[in-house]
Amino acid sequence: MALNGFFDFFQREKTFRPKKRFTQGTIRYSLHKHAQASLQSGINLREVVKLPPGENKNDWFAVHVVDFFNRINLIYGTVSEYCNETTCPTMSGGSRYEYLWADGHLYKKPTPLAAPKYVELLMDWIENQINNEQLFPVSTDVPFPKTFVSLCRKILTRLFRVFVHVYIHHFDRIFSIGAEAHVNTCYKHFYYFVQEFDLISSKELEPLAEMTSHICKD
Ligand SMILES: [Zn+2]
Questions:
Q1: Cα-to-centroid distance, 80 and ligand 1 (Å)
Q2: How far is the CA of 167 from the centre of ligand 1 (A)?
Q3: How remote is the CA of residue 169 from the centroid of ligand 1, in Å?
Q4: How remote is the CA of residue 161 from the centroid of ligand 1, in Å?
Q5: What is the mean pLDDT of residues 59-72?
Q6: Is residue 152 a known part of a binding site?
Q7: Strands 100-101 and 111-112
Q8: Using one digit for the tens of pLDDT, what is the confidence trace for 6-17?
Q9: Span from the CA of 106 to the centroid of ligand 1 (angstroms)
Q10: In order of start, what are the domains of the chain with their CATH numbers?
Q11: Which pTM was predicted?
């Protein structure tokens, strides 16, 4: 299925932060619309992630990073009331994986945190990056920083951890509200995007590798 109605579906559910929008009339806005239109026509997700001819790769990355942030934010929002310090005392993905948080400021050393705290810090951190116009320029007069691709890698790697936690610990909730097709489609789109541009290491992708092999076949 395509992503038709993805935002409509999730906006009926609880969300915990406003979604970032693109400014109308900018290149990024038209690329965002281009990406949305491709999705709505229901074509092959493996194809739609490819850089359109003549487009700038950094713009393409910026649009996708912001879109994925918004989508994953909505997805986590639907499980967040079931994700607390009692249900999820660690940011785990099953018994084999646990993520530790470090941000170089408040948490200088990798620190175990309850999942909701970890996700809150993670989403705040991403929001700060994408709202920083030095890092994600809104105007074409401002160049992308040299570190832009590595920043996108880091953001996407961290976003992937939210997928890991939601899939492994909260899929019953996703299922009970009938959102599994939406979440799977979002995951496939994300996965094909990061694979197309080799943005997340296979080691990081490992916690969902088994599931990925089942849902990312086409
Ligand atoms: Zn949880």
A1: 7
A2: 10
A3: 6
A4: 11
A5: 94
A6: no
A7: antiparallel
A8: 666 666 555 445
A9: 22
A10: 26-216 (1.20.140.30)
A11: 0.87
